[in-house]
């Protein structure tokens, strides 16, 4: 199927209030342009270098989301233009984003990435760390960022109950923090599990291969 058909199929499955982040990592600028022309404006990349190569070649009204682990020494490259950093996984990183955001006279939107998967390898804050960081934010410690919500990735498994349990855990944390200060975004779900994520309360999904096709990491 073509990118266009894939995109329409995904869009048709999303309730109108659910934001789609089109994850374009490894895919060429031409493919991103094609999806842009279908009306999509929010795109996600997981590597700073790849984003820096693509960004100048594409329309300036794209809202770029960084969705992969971000090293503090690379924040300065994306701070002038990034719309949202979804992958805040340490206080140190949040401090650095706050600093670079101030330098650029901006307020960068961020999501706290919370570890919900059973797998060891996934980046993210423990739930207790995320809550503690959010409290510091409420006390005014990071005035140049706006924490707009939470992001999480479920375990890569066929076991839908496991995935559901993890998503519901994050929804619980979201509801709890949302009582302290209104949060906009609960980012959960990818190509394989976004319907489950939406059923569990996600209002933003990050979909890559179901739109752009399989990724080729060989080059
Ligand atoms: C690659 C990636 C996605 C998209 O994955 P697909 O399975 O291709 O939809 C979503 N979120 C993050 C954090 C990713 O790195």
Automatic annotation (TrEMBL):
Where on the chain is N6-(pyridoxal phosphate)lysine found, per UniProt? 25
Q: Where are the transmembrane segments?
A: none
Q: Which Gene3D superfamilies does this chain map to?
A: Alanine racemase (3.20.20.10)
- The segment(s) forming the Alanine racemase N-terminal domain are 2-214
InterPro entries attached to this UniProt entry: Ala_racemase_N (IPR001608), PLP-binding_barrel (IPR029066), PyrdxlP_homeostasis (IPR011078)
Q: Which UniProt keywords apply?
A: Pyridoxal phosphate
- Role, per record: Pyridoxal 5'-phosphate (PLP)-binding protein, which is involved in PLP homeostasis.
Similarity comment? Belongs to the pyridoxal phosphate-binding protein YggS/PROSC family.
UniProt cross-references to HAMAP family, sorted A to Z: PLP_homeostasis
Instruction: Return the protein name.
Output: Pyridoxal phosphate homeostasis protein
